[in-house]
């Protein structure tokens, strides 16, 4: 390898099995080992995470995106894709494509008795609005790659008038 190769490798390559993973637990239903793969790479328009979800758990709320698309690759195990109000079995080797829009709220649940490992790949559209149908929340975010990121999470119906504080 040339002297430039290690630096290129660092900017361009991540190993799913070797990257350090964080342990996320929220309440009794949410648990996963996960890592953001694209963070610190040269990627500008793609995001990626790896999730390992224990039996009976899930890694994120039921949600939909208004701007970004997502793709999920089931690497090991099996579970259930909750999408558009339906429950669809998924297994290792399945590739799931979720376009933006209200037609495709989604969530992956581990409904099996073994760990479920999957790769999430998403376009990093900015700005983005994400809705959470189960809880009536929404999240607006913009400028996440800048020094002044914006993120707001609220419940629908708790906003203010357009002119509040303006005149």
Structural description of this entry:
One of its GO terms (molecular function) is metal ion binding. The protein has 167 residues and is mainly beta. It has a single domain, classed as Sandwich (Jelly Rolls), CATH 2.60.120.10. The chain has one helix at 5-12, and strands spanning 22-26, 30-36, 46-53, 64-65, 70-76, 78-83, 86-91, 95-98, 106-109, 116-123, 128-132, 137-142, 150-155. The strands form 3 sheets. Strands 1-2-3-10-5-8 form a 6-stranded antiparallel sheet, with no helix packed on it. The mean pLDDT is 94.
Give the helix/strand layout.
Elements: H1 5-12, E1 22-26, E2 30-36, E3 46-53, E4 64-65, E5 70-76, E6 78-83, E7 86-91, E8 95-98, E9 106-109, E10 116-123, E11 128-132, E12 137-142, E13 150-155
Antiparallel strand pairs: 1-2, 2-3, 3-10, 4-11, 5-8, 5-10, 6-7, 6-9, 11-12, 12-13
Protein name: Cupin type-2 domain-containing protein
Organism: Rhodospirillum centenum (strain ATCC 51521 / SW)
Domain Cupin type-2: 52-121
Short overview:
Residues 52-121 form the Cupin type-2 domain. This is Cupin type-2 domain-containing protein. The protein is mostly beta strands and 167 residues long.
User: In percent, how much strand structure appears in the residues?
Assistant: 35-45%
Distance between the termini: 64 Å
Mean pLDDT value? 94
Number of helices: 1
- The first-level CATH class name: Mainly Beta
**CA-based gyration radius:** 18 Å
Number of strands: 13
CATH superfamily: Jelly Rolls
**Which structural class do you get from the secondary structure elements?**
mainly beta
Biggest sheet, spatial arrangement of strands: 1-2-3-10-5-8
Series of H and E elements: HEEEEEEEEEEEEE
Report the uncertain regions.
Answer: none
Shape: globular
User: CATH architecture, please?
Assistant: Sandwich
The CATH topology is Jelly Rolls
- The helical percent reads under 10%
- Major sheet: size, sense and barrel closure? 6 strands, antiparallel
Integer count of domains: 1
């Amino acid at each position: 390898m040339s002297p430039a190769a290690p630096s290129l490798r660092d900017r361009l390559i991540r190993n799913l099995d070797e990257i350090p993973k964080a342990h996320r637990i929220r309440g009794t239903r949410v648990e996963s080992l996960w890592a953001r793969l694209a963070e610190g790479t040269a990627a500008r328009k793609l995001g990626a995470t790896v999730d390992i979800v224990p039996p009976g758990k899930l890694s994120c709320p039921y949600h939909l995106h208004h701007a970004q698309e997502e793709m999920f690759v089931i690497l090991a195990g099996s579970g259930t894709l909750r999408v558009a109000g339906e429950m669809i079995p998924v297994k290792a080797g399945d590739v799931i494509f979720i376009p933006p829009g209200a037609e495709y709220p989604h969530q992956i649940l581990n409904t099996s008795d073994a760990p479920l490992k999957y790769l999430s790949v998403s376009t990093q559209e900015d700005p983005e609005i994400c809705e959470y149908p189960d809880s009536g929340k929404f999240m607006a975010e913009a400028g996440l790659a800048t020094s002044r990121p914006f993120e707001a999470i609220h419940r629908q119906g708790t906003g203010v008038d357009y002119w509040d504080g303006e005149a």
